[in-house]
Amino acid sequence: MDMKNIKILPLIILLILTTLSEAQNFALLDSVINSSISKKAFPGAAIAVGSKNAIIYKKAYGNYTYDKASTAVTTQSMFDMASVTKAFSTNFCVMKLVDENKIDINKKVCEYIPAFGQNGKEDVRVIDLLIHESGLQAYYTPKEGQSRQSIIDSIMALPLSYKTGSDMIYSCLNFVTTMLVVEAASGERMYKFYKDNFTDPLEMKSTMYVPTPDCVDQCVTTFTHLKGIVHDPLARGLEGLSGNAGLFSSVEDLSKLCILLLNKGMYNGKRYLKAETIEYFSKKYSDRTTRAIGFDTRSNDGTASSGKLFSPGSYGHLGYTGTSIWIDPVKEIFVVFLTNRVYPDDTASIKRIRPKVHDAVIKSLREKK
What we know:
6-stranded antiparallel β-sheet
């Protein structure tokens, strides 16, 4: 045998043993997800588990649909992120503009968007939008054929549905409005600001709004007729360019944002956000709700989607289509868990599956140690 091959052989054996060991360590996690697919909670999924330094474990499961002949999910498959868009796109833009002193979240929204200051909304602040205490109603369903500008004008004209600060009602309109604040403060469309400041420099090539024709095949199906088209009706009415939903991404790409957050704004030696900004935005804002500024935090009543084993102070966000990201700054880990649970008819629930997945991650990491 060639001496060069003899030297390489131990490295190959080590790689195989490491891979087998890793698969064994995460066998419980794999079992939870594969069982969920067999019970038709979702046809496909992808997961990335990581630390502040790197991805520890990543895997794809199932197919784009329940047809076994359909495309197999990969860790670069693009999922419709739904409301994860709010936290990991819109909120990232807000944090960047806060760092640049272009947004003061304690200022009134109408100082950035004069059209918003009508019908009792004159005193609503940007932070009220970000913690979902603005008083705006939960949702607006566009009319058939309604234009993007008409939808925006309609939302701007809506009256408050409750007194600002008196309650927390999770609202997509808060983040459509936040998008408009970002655009007013930055002087450009939010999707472009996000691309210029995050996805391009981080080389997140599978992350975008309105997937380009060459990326549509990479997009996991939601409804039977929606592939590469945003599932959320409001974001769809806004031509796929919205602050509440519309982002498509993969577990590999989103891991970069998680590593950035765990490293207090740094990634590969470059600073993207200030450490103090991330700390301020990711902490629970008050004792009234679980909301942080633009993020959600882990509830302590036993119902957390991040399970029972993530640390208090963990933060992240869920997406209606079956997506989620949770970051534990104490354990310094993250989990990006993406599914297309709305396929084919939006009847499956993964409420009980999400905690099992996250608990399995922590148990697997304990075994790995």
